[in-house]
Give the backbone structure.
Amino acid sequence: MGAHVHTKFTDDQVKELLQKYIDGGVKRKYLQEILGIKKAMFFRLLKNYREDPLGFSVVYKRAKSTRTIDPEIKNNIVKELAIDKVAIKNKDVPLYKYNYSYVQKRLERKYKQTASIPTIIRYAKANDCYLPKRKKAKTHEREVLTTHIGELIQHDASIHLWAPDSGKKWTLITSLDDYSRCLLYAQFVEHESSWAHIQALQHVVLKYGAPLAYYTDCHSIFRYVKGRDQRHMSFEKFTDDVDPQWKMVIKDCGIKPIYALSPQAKGKIERPYGWLQDHIVRTCIRENVKDIGHGQRVLNYEFNRYNHHQMHTTTKEIPNRRFNSANEAKKSLFRSWVIPKPFLSVRDIFALRAVRYIDNYMTVTIRNHTFKLSNIEPQRPVDIRIYILEPFFYELRFWHNSRLVKVERVKDSDLLPVHF
């Protein structure tokens, strides 16, 4: 309280009041009330005045500056901010603002140093690394629309220059449980494809069980839309009259597909995990990530931190804990999944599909490959399930009349007979 005496009184005014007390003209309690100080502060001022009347001052003097930090910490703050500044200016990099909390955590993890957020912001402003918060138009409030885990899986893909040093854009495919906000799948792929999304679906179903529904956008991988996806057809089919590869798989799994009819509708639940994306890009830049394998390791680290350590801003809970609590309370719509009859392997279900008709020589042809089949009448359809074992190496499973008639493995970069 006494530290603020100098803001209301001059040194001479305080000297005059103290001298009146010494001379017996004014009682202490009145002077305390006038100065706005307590007893201890009054006697401290009185002692200083008596010891040095000429040099007495009520101006507060700091023993040392409180607005200085270790030069090494300052240099590291400025260095980290400069890295973000370059990335933000690059229009191909999905960073649009500074993240001072990330810089603070970076100081702790990499340099074993600490600094407050206000200190980091102060140096950001001093080094032209500050962007004022923009006023946002009113958007949909993020909310949890479900009451059980497995009730709705948000599935999405984002293509960005995640690692600028790689010089390539990768696609991040993610699957997230709406109720818990727990990430169930996160994978970088060099090219988005039906197969990449089928692999994501396979991972979720085999690890957690079959959920009630999947929520995606209307990308052609997920849904056939009239007027947009007509590919060399003699007549135009209506929306949903054709099932894309991914949709055929999800129907075989007994999962309901739900489509966002606009980007705004997709954002109404939650756009693709801004916190996760923000941290991945910043870390990839700092670790000079050049290949997708290294990028996946960064993603795995952030994936784990998001699920197990980061409190979600919507649920106010750590996602993995919320997921496990719901599971223990039997608030789950995940169901045990078994291979539907007559199929024999997961490779019959989580596969690309094609139909060919057997010719008079008891063969079917896919691109330049001819496969001999037996005990099938000519002109009969054969259902071919194609499972990719590795790039350009495929397992083909031939089905006819609910019977597996042949399994072949082929290595050919130009084999696939379907758009995927």
